[in-house]
């Protein structure tokens, strides 16, 4: 049997056992008690399990499948993977995602290679159309719109891809929290926080 302690608590625990004559008088104690480092923020970001329920459809189909008929999907192709422009690492899409999917984490890419990770609990195409609208208006509150305006990128050059999806649990109470964790994890993994990318902040409080 084992347990994980923070360093200070590990020392207190061993001290308690010695006071009770459990540790020092037991010839087998070295095989029974051990110390392991507790999880830090980096561990939580990389290994956090923000997913629930089954992946994809019943037939196991995975990837991003735009309909190519609505305004948000026009000229977009299906994708089985995506690449971080900062690390050049390729990631496989392990969910079945369409432009009508909800509770999605998505990736925006501009012509110059900067990327933005976002989340939405509505249909993905609705959120993408909002990004397009903010770019056309030159919305100063949107980091994506500001960049497109400053770099003089046409709105038609915006590329997006659904990269992850949270399936609701039976309780349906923690989905927004898990969606926030999933978004933060991908911001961290893809290195899209400013100035390397277009995300202004990386929220770590959702892992505490």
TrEMBL record:
InterPro entries: GIY-YIG_endonuc, Host_DNA_Degrad_Endo. It comes from the Eukaryota. Residues 101-200 form the GIY-YIG domain. PANTHER family: PTHR21301:SF12, REVERSE TRANSCRIPTASE. This is GIY-YIG domain-containing protein. The lineage of its organism: Eukaryota, Metazoa, Chordata, Craniata, Vertebrata.
């Amino acid at each position: 049997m084992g347990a994980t302690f923070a360093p200070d608590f590990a020392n207190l625990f061993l001290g308690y056992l010695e006071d009770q004559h459990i540790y020092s008088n037991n010839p087998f104690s070295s095989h029974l008690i051990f110390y392991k480092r507790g999880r830090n923020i980096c561990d939580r970001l990389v290994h956090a399990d923000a997913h629930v329920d089954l992946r994809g459809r019943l037939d196991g189909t995975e990837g991003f499948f735009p309909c190519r008929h609505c305004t948000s999907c026009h000229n977009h192709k299906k994708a089985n993977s995506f690449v971080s422009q900062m690390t050049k690492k390729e990631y496989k899409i392990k969910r079945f995602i369409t432009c009508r999917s909800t509770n999605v984490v998505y990736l925006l890419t501009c012509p110059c290679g900067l990327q933005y990770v976002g989340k939405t609990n509505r249909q993905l195409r609705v959120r993408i159309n909002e990004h397009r609208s903010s770019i056309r208006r030159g919305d100063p509150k949107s980091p994506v719109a500001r960049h497109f305006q400053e770099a003089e990128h046409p709105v038609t050059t915006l590329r997006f891809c659904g990269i992850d999806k949270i399936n609701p649990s039976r309780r349906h109470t923690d989905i927004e929290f898990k969606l926030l964790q999933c978004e933060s994890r991908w911001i961290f993994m893809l290195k899209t926080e400013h100035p390397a990318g277009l995300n202004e902040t990386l929220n770590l409080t959702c892992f505490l």
